[in-house]
């Protein structure tokens, strides 16, 4: 009778151990998946795009000033 009780204790211990090992493996996998995702980068603001276009010579100074004034008007409306 004692042998049977001790055997049941080891079976219970082994089952709990396997549950803990499986839980730890799932936790590690979730952490690795979350770390490997690329973080979204912020998009350039409209003013940044406008300044780049002006610096590249794609628009004139007058076009730049007019567009910047429109952007400022829009920002005040928010």
Give a description of the structure.
The radius of gyration is 32 Å and the shape is rod-shaped. The longest helix is centred in the N-terminal third of the chain and has 35 residues, at 2-36. It has helices at residues 2-36, 46-55, 61-77. α2 packs antiparallel against α3 (61-77). The protein has 78 residues and is mainly alpha-helical.
List keywords for this structure.
0% strand; 3 helices; mainly alpha; 78 residues
SSE topology sketch:
Elements: H1 2-36, H2 46-55, H3 61-77
Helix pairs in contact: 2-3
What composes the largest sheet? none
Give the radius of gyration. Answer: 32 Å
What is the total tally of β strands?
0
CA(first)-CA(last) distance? 80 Å
**Structural class by helix and strand composition:** mainly alpha
Concise synopsis of the structure shown:
By secondary structure, the protein is mainly alpha-helical. Helix content is 79%, strand content 0%. The protein has helices at residues 2-36, 46-55, 61-77.
